[in-house]
Amino acid sequence: MLKKFSPAKAKEWLCRESISVLYTVPTMTDALARIEGFPDSPVKIISSGADWPAESKEKLAAAWPHLKLYDFYGTSELSFVTFSSPEDSKRKPHSAGRPFHNVRIEILNAGGERCQPGEIGKIFVKSPMRFSGYVNGSTPDEWMTVDDMGYVDEEGFLYISGRENGMIVYGGLNIFPEEIERVLLACPEVESAAVVGIPDEYWGEIAVAVILGNANARTLKALCKQKLASYKIPKKWVFADSLPETSSGKIARSRVKKWLEESIQYK
């Protein structure tokens, strides 16, 4: 086990040792792909901790067809909630998968009513793997939520829209940054991307995209116009040399937002 993730060191271990399972977050997997870090032998890749864009999985499967890709959705409080098998990923590439054994999911609207398939609401989970309680002595409810938003389809596959507290309210319309980021990350010239909401006197909030990579704003706007409703297209673009990450490899969205508000001139 490596004390700290390094793409070069991970590549060395994968190619030298008889490793059959690799547990990663998507940013680590993408970093290994950029340096062709996967071995010729079969490896099960289990990804969790952040959204794994369908385009990234498809590119990985095309370049290394012997890899088996598993995508897990879960939270610190609930452990694993859903999983997507390699077969599931081919059939429903944008889904977070189906619930684990003995785990139940409900999607509820703002009024506490169950949503219909395809209708976005707040994700509630009932699981025997949920945590036992807080340090102050209080215990969690039987049905728990961490304020993630999403929907299920007719077959019970879960789709994650984003985190409620990260949602951008643009002129009364709700925008999930994760949806925009998935589109931006489909561009080969984009290494990483973060979308945040910045206060605006007229609209309330506007979406600002921060990009790491060699793409330009014109190209990315054209890509967004093909994939997104017009109100979801970022109104401002910032190109950075790096993006802050959490210790688990996720984009530190709050730090990106603070950085923008304090010091950056938008393009």
TrEMBL record:
GO biological process terms, semicolon-separated: fatty acid metabolic process
Keyword Transferase carried by entry: no
Ranges of residues in domain AMP-binding enzyme C-terminal: 179-250
Signal peptide: none
Alphabetical list of Gene3D superfamilies matching this protein: 3.30.300.30, N-terminal domain of ligase-like
GO terms for MF: medium-chain fatty acid-CoA ligase activity
Residues in AMP-dependent synthetase/ligase domain copies: 7-134
Domain of life: Bacteria
Keyword terms of this UniProt record: Ligase
Keyword Chaperone assigned: no
Pfam entry (one): AMP-binding_C
PANTHER family in the cross-refs: ACYL-COA SYNTHETASE, MEDIUM-CHAIN ACYL-COA LIGASE ACSF2, MITOCHONDRIAL
Family, similarity comment: Belongs to the ATP-dependent AMP-binding enzyme family.
Name of this protein: Acyl-CoA synthetase
